[in-house]
Amino acid sequence: MKNSQDKKRRPRNHYALPMVLAGLVVILAVALGYTLTRGESGQEAELNNLPNYTEVKGKIVVDGLNYGKQPRLGSPDAKIKVMEFADFKCPACKKWTQTNMQRFIRNYVDTGKVEYYFMNFAFIDRDSYLAASAGEAIYHQSNEKFWEYATKLYDNQGDESKIWATEKFILKFVKDNIDGIDYDQFEQDLKNQTYMLDVKEDFKTAGSYGVNGTPQFMVNGVLLKGSSYDTLTAAIDKQLAGGN
């Protein structure tokens, strides 16, 4: 009888371990799903904080380039005014700035030949608009600090195809990299999207002059067909020589 009873118990013990393992798998799956859901919710919250041009309300009148509203470098007495149209997410803008900006400033801005301006043409994605509005917030505190922001942001540029210039990223980036501004005011302006209408106005103004990509340049009100260093400097030299 004892052997017979033992044989009856063994099947129960045989299936007990797989049942316990199956239960653990279910518990782990539920826990993992909960963790992923929480992560996705945080990511979705970041995306929901991104601006959309259609939600930016306010009157926009496109009436000339309005140089006085744009960040600038150089003397206001310079004969040539150059306007750069750029998007902080644009890899070509980053390359132009890192490759050409310093020698252009040295040869044309510091010599008094050119006054150089920047206008947002934020078109790649919604975080383009946010990065542009952050630049505007800094510019309204300090023209000098705007150029520092632009240069360093290009140095830390993310993948063009991904959303990287989120509110969280920009706040940390500015806190870590841009000294000499009222950070609390900047944070308030960014979160309240104080200067988003200015970014939208830049976009509409640039589009009215035929801008359709970045970087693009305008010399004394004339939009250039190319964006290379040689194309830009040739147009400037022609103007300096008295050509049209």
From TrEMBL:
Superkingdom as given in the UniProt entry: Bacteria
Cross-referenced Gene3D superfamilies: Glutaredoxin
SUPFAM superfamilies linked: Thioredoxin-like
InterPro entries assigned to the protein according to its UniProt record, in alphabetical order: Thioredoxin-like_fold, Thioredoxin-like_sf, Thioredoxin_domain
One GO MF term attached to the UniProt entry: oxidoreductase activity
Membrane-crossing residue ranges in chain numbering: 15-36
UniProt keyword Oxidoreductase, yes or no: yes
Keywords, comma-separated and alphabetical: Disulfide bond, Membrane, Oxidoreductase, Redox-active center, Signal, Transmembrane, Transmembrane helix
Residue ranges annotated for the Thioredoxin domain, each copy included: 39-241
Family: Belongs to the thioredoxin family. DsbA subfamily.
Full protein name: DsbA family protein
Top-level taxonomy: Bacteria, Bacillati, Bacillota, Bacilli, Bacillales
